[in-house]
Amino acid sequence: MSEKGFFVQELERHDTKDVSDSHINGELTVIWRDWDNIIKEYPKMVYVNTVNSGEIKGPHLHKNRTTYFSCIQGEIIIVIRDDDGSFHEIRSNTQKPSLICVKNGIAAAIINPTKEISKVLVLADIAWRPNDNEMENVEFVDYDFDKWV
């Protein structure tokens, strides 16, 4: 884990081929394999998070949960405020797939700067339960969200 409370891992992409004549019929992107050792604790929850066009989710932090994000449709910007209070803007899309890890206690926001719905695959080391009071909303008072939406 980075000393800043987050990291970005570029992901593998592989062409897939038709079984009859081997023409390329799509692509496979590896998000997580147990033997890659990217995610130290096996995920306890996997879900898809959608972000509507021009919307911002967060900023918030998770008190106990470490979260891993991979954009699987569209594009997102994840804004992370690290332990030192510095902001980091990480663009993620399907053309350059990545896995973005935000450890517990680190605040982040997800922005969809596009005109389409974006979808994000999320893996978490602790499963969410309704009313678990594990998430805390925060403010990024020194950050300009208007530049994205």
Which key terms come to mind for this protein?
149 residues; mainly beta; Jelly Rolls; 5-stranded antiparallel β-sheet; 12 strands
> What order do the strands of the largest sheet run in, or round the barrel if closed?
1-9-6-11-4
Number of strands: 12
Q: What is the CATH C-level name?
A: Mainly Beta
CATH superfamily: Jelly Rolls
How much is the average pLDDT? 93
- What is the H-and-E element order? EEEEEEEEEEEE
Shape: globular
Q: Say what the CATH topology is.
A: Jelly Rolls
Strand content: over 45%
Per CATH, which architecture? Sandwich
Integer tally of domains: 1
Radius of gyration: 16 Å
List unreliable stretches of 5+ residues.
none
Q: In angstroms, what separates the terminal alpha carbons?
A: 31 Å
Strand count, sense and closure of the main sheet?
A: 5 strands, antiparallel
Structural class: mainly beta
Figure out the total of helices: 0
What can you see in these coordinates?
With about 150 residues, the protein is mostly beta strands. The chain has one domain: Sandwich (Jelly Rolls). About 0% of the residues lie in helices and about 50% in strands. The protein has strands spanning about 5-10, 15, 25-30, 45-50, 55-60, 65-75, 75-80, 85-95, 100, 105-110, 120-125, 135. The strands form three sheets. The chain has a five-stranded antiparallel beta sheet, with no helix packed on it. The two termini are about 30 Å apart. The model has no long low-confidence stretch (mean pLDDT about 95).
